[in-house]
Amino acid sequence: MPRQAYVNGSYRPHREAAVHIEDRGYLFADGVYEVVPVHNGILVDEDLHLDRLDRSLSELQIEAPMSRPALKLVSRELMRRNGLSNGFLYMQVTRGVAPRDHKFPNNATPALVMMTRQMKPHSEKILSEGLKVITLPDQRWARCDIKSVSLLPNVLGKQAAAEAGAYEAWQVDGEGQVTEGTSTNAWIVTEGNRVITRDASNAILNGITRITLLNLIRAEGYELEERPFSVDEAKTAREAFLTSSTSFVLPVTQIDGQPVGNGHPGILTTKLRQHYMDYMQSLRQSA
Ligand code: PLP
């Protein structure tokens, strides 16, 4: 069966799945999304993702398109149709379709689309060599805590990284402190083996992988600080890494062309990736 997508109440062949040209997501980026990792057929941290979706929707005063149990049913049915075992489920909710006008429409129905994508495991090369990142000014709006589909600065940053031969761009605020990557959270490990990541605020998306990894770090008793760190601190750190629903935990070994630490994936980074992989492996699907 060809891959399917869910669009506003029906399952459609992925290739033909489409939304209306006056969907406010298309016209104004007036919508939010979630990317839920799927590991061995299990939706990882599904409820945390759905909690964040609820929060993003309520911050933008968009109604939930359906109840949580219904969302879970549709997710599972789409995964079943697509035989998804490892990859991710993407869901997007917009304010709906209405004649183009900036202010909220009076009675638009929220629009919901879902799609899935199978993913291969990260390559040995990435795991053994680590990733390059560049830094650039954070040009985004003041509500980066909302997982909005308005991602133009992120798109431009990721493109700048790709053009520089890097995987990711770490965005930097007006004080010279790293906020986060364009689609990942940023982390460093100090010479004293303390794990540092920026505290959750409007300046970053509070990644679900970040939240889970923080819990694992605490459970394992590693030293941890949630605070901003500067580009200089990152460049002179012992280790660096990034997290997201599709990266899990990946080592960063070069920042703006400078090696981080000894230029190889850090020992603690490698351990933390393993803790995260073990965590995913231990999950059983909830109803
Ligand atoms: N920061 C940004 C800007 C992102 O877009 C993402 C993921 O898409 C993340 C961080 C990581 O979030 P998560 O771990 O929930 O995937």
End-to-end C-alpha gap: 26 Å
The chain-level structural class is: alpha+beta
Tell me the series of helices and strands, N- to C-terminal: EEHEEHHEEHEHEEEEHEHEEEH
Silhouette? globular
Largest sheet: 9 strands, mixed
Radius of gyration: 19 Å
The overall average pLDDT, rounded, is: 97
How much strand content do the residues show? 25-35%
> Could you tell me which ligands this complex binds, including any ions or cofactors?
pyridoxal-5'-phosphate
**Share of residues in helices:** 25-40%
Structure report:
The chain is of the alpha+beta class and 287 residues long. 30% of the residues lie in helices and 27% in strands. It is built from eight helices and 15 strands. The model has no long low-confidence stretch (mean pLDDT 97). Bound molecules: pyridoxal-5'-phosphate.
Key traits:
single chain; 287 residues; alpha+beta; nine-stranded mixed β-sheet; six-stranded antiparallel β-sheet; 15 strands; 27% strand; globular; binds pyridoxal-5'-phosphate
Quick recap of the structure?
With 287 residues, this protein is α+β, with helices and mostly antiparallel strands. It contains eight helices and 15 strands.
Topology (elements, then pairings):
Blueprint: E1 4-7, E2 10-13, H1 24-28, E3 31-39, E4 42-43, H2 46-59, H3 68-82, E5 87-94, E6 111-118, H4 124-129, E7 131-137, H5 152-163, E8 168-172, E9 178-181, E10 185-189, E11 195-197, H6 208-220, E12 224-226, H7 231-235, E13 239-244, E14 248-255, E15 258-259, H8 267-282
Parallel strand pairs: 7-8, 7-14, 11-12
Antiparallel strand pairs: 1-2, 1-6, 3-4, 3-5, 5-6, 8-9, 10-11, 10-13, 13-14, 14-15
Helix pairs in contact: 6-8
The structure holds pyridoxal-5'-phosphate.
